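Suppose a classmate hands you a notebook page containing two proteins, each written out with its sequence and a corresponding row of structure tokens. How would you begin to make sense of it? This section walks through that situation. The first entry is reproduced here exactly as it would appear on such a page.
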Amino acid sequence: MRTLNALFARAFEDSENYATAPPSDAYLQRWLGLAHGIALVGASEGEIVGGLVAYELEKFERACREIYIYDLAVDARHRRRGVATALIGELRAHAQRCGAWVIYVQADHGDDPAIALYTKLGAREDVMHFDIAVPAGKS
């Protein structure tokens, strides 16, 4: 998980969120035990070269699940070799096993490689994304 976070920090050029406040071992162990958390990695010669983190969402309006890809990245030296497509393929197999009816992911405007990949694999929907701030709570 730490290696995967380091890969995300590099790939997204976002050390602030992925590297400056690493979670404890206990936190990572708890996360790995979550029934709805999914972490997949692609490896080459013992090195993690890609990774995907997703979440299974149980719906309430129907007895079904959806899967949301939260993070997906491939190390720059290993891009354009099918790593991301293989990770999504493995996630599709998981989705089929758990009864999910769809996998969804968002891409940022201007992230042309991601948009091309997701367009190849699925149907595009133009939606808006909003971040709603949560006030700092008392600990």
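The notebook's second entry, a different protein, reads as follows.
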Amino acid sequence: MDKKGSEALYRRLYTKLRDEIRFGFLKAGDAFPTEESLCEKYSLSRVTVRKALALLTDEGYLTRKRGIGTSVRLPNMLSDSPSITSFQDYCKRAGHEAETRVISAALSPANRQDMTMLKAQAGESVLSSCRIRLCDGEPVVLEYNRYSKALSFLTESALSGSLYTAMLEKGYSVASASHVVSIRYADAETAQLLSVPKGSALLYLLECMYDEKHTPLHTSEQFIRGDRFAFRI
């Protein structure tokens, strides 16, 4: 782990461990690694590790009991911003089954929004995808994503599961996000994909995801059925 200031170190360790919990690498109820093992694994001081663990505990990802030790837990369903929470994780917390269907995935020329939000170069090819997110077999989110050059390793098979898990396995972690929320009305294609009447009001979410250095990773335009899916920002 790159040592560029103790403040950055504990935040980076916190982000990595948080994502390992969110995406199932560390599961609820599992014994959490000891401070000593984390210090050794990441070549960090005890103080740095303790600060990261304290933040994880404060946010509900860990529970620490005297005489028993530290174990993993998941925060309450609405405790996280949707900008950095996996849809699959969200559904799991609520006791539902998540599914992702890839409608399309292809390279396309960078558009003006890619050049502004993803810092893509003119003439550069950008991976784009359209996915339907289902909860208990019912479509609830129509999602159009466009990915930075760094995420060109993504394949259709990776996109059919948890995007953030696929990213994490390659060492990419979402640390922050910007988002704009508004209301849109379903056109014929959107209505068909989401199984709603044409003209239905949908929650529209435009996001840009960033890594810990605030480098853009991907953008996401989501059309969300408010009657089936809700979140708190």
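A careful reader of the second entry would note: Residues 6-22 form the longest helix (17 residues).
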